[in-house]
User: Fold this.
Amino acid sequence: MNYYNEIKNELINNEINRQVKDYSKNRYELQKYYNVGKLLFEAGKNYGEGIIKEYSEKLKVEINKKYSIRYLFDIRKLYLFLKVHPLDAQLTMSHYRLLFPLKMIMR
Assistant:
């Protein structure tokens, strides 16, 4: 038995499984943010931009997690951004937040 090769194979398999899980988790989170962004966009069209502030305050109370107004606007930006650019699950929400200003430059 070649212990080194066995160890290497186990570690490689573990790394592959971790990357697949990370990719799946990231894709799920981006899809969730996309869906929320779409709802925020539609709510803003129907009720005005102030609705995002109201939702932010309600979410803080009801979910006990801080969803700032800025973060909700960024989630909405993600929806608008992904309508033009394809979803890439290798990028995180943080990556997309960095890319948002580029869209403004590219116009």
About this structure: The chain has a mean pLDDT of 81. The CA atoms of residues 5 and 11 lie 10 Å apart. The chain is about 85% helix and 0% strand.
